[in-house]
Amino acid sequence: MKNYTLLFLLVGFIGCKSGSNEHAEGTNVMDHSEHQAPTNEDQKSKSPRTAAMAVVDGNHIHIDYSSPSVRGRQIFGGLVAYGEVWVTGAHKATSIQIDKPIQIDGQKIPSGKYGLFTIPGENEWTFIVNQVWDMHLADDYSLEKDVIRISAIPTKLEQPVESLTFEVIPKENNQGEIRFAWSDTQASFTFQND
After folding, report:
1. C-beta separation of 119 from 126 below 8 A
2. Which of 91, 72, 162, 88 has the alpha carbon at shortest distance from 120?
């Protein structure tokens, strides 16, 4: 077990060198000095903390979230209620941090760190970017602090995804996609660098 822990920490260190502000190509990217290595408790958790990140045309996008597993449960319309604000993970709120301003549906989002919530629905999902990112679950969620709400049509997956997963996917023309998948459901939205 110690060998796996050491390997995990080494990979995390190489992927996110603490205090480094220079990308290999000389482009400024987000400071990772706030990242903490997962603790033994994180690794034992049924919903471990993890991250998804990518550089999209010079803009570092970083999502920090908990990744619960299905473990034979009915997820949407069961464990996760339809029509209610959800932390899109477990425990601490999911956050998204952007190095440079982006646009979503024509609305400018300044660089910074935000809460990333969802309202799952059978036929439509709502992604929420909220000013408050540091909270337990959605306990302190406030509609008044929403920066933007984005509608998304969910798709059913042919192959279920056991552990909740986010991806940041670079696209052409200065665009990127934030993709969520868990159980038999996937939903996403696109953004463009401003």
Report:
1. yes
2. 88
Mean pLDDT of the chain: 83
Q: Burial letters for 81-94: b for 16+ Cβ neighbours within 10 Å, e otherwise?
A: eeeebbbbbbebbb
Instruction: State how far the Cα of 194 lies from the Cα of 106, in Å rounded to an integer.
Output: 10
CA distance 154 to 119: 11
Helical residues (DSSP H) of the chain, grouped into ranges: 2-15, 40-44
* Chain centroid, CA 115 distance in Å: 9
DSSP line for 33-70? TT--PPPHHHHHSSS-EEEEEEEETTEEEEEEEE--B-
* Residue 47, pLDDT score: 86
pLDDT band at 61 (very low <50, low <70, confident <90, very high): very high
Q: Tokens 């990127």 label which residue?
A: 176
- CA–CA dist 110, 2 (Å, integer): 41
Closest by CA to 180, choosing from 77, 68, 39, is 68
CA distances 142 to 66, 112, 133, 186, 191, Å, are 21, 18, 11, 25, 23
- pLDDT tier, 1 (very low <50, low <70, confident <90, very high otherwise): very low
Return the structure tokens found at 21. Answer: 């502000």
3-state DSSP percent of the chain in helix, strand and coil, to 5: 10, 45, 40
Where do the structural domains in the chain lie, given as residue ranges?
1-44, 46-193
Residue 73 corresponds to which tokens in the numbers above?
Answer: 């449960």
